[in-house]
Amino acid sequence: MMRRLVIAIRRFLQKEESGATAIEYVVMSAILAAGLVVGAGLYKNSVKAMFGHVATDVHNCADGSC
């Protein structure tokens, strides 16, 4: 009885599912890429402004007016 259960579990775990797994990874990658593109578009102006302020502060400190 126990031997049959072990054999059944081994057969279940050894099924070939690489095609389905590859498709799942492609779908997850596409969703992640779309999220990154949307996120970058939303925060583009605020990040640009932040680096602008940092550049101004560094320039002012280089002139001695920190």
From TrEMBL:
Transmembrane stretches, by residue range? 21-43
Keyword list, A-Z = Membrane, Transmembrane, Transmembrane helix
Task: State what protein this is by name.
Answer: Flp family type IVb pilin
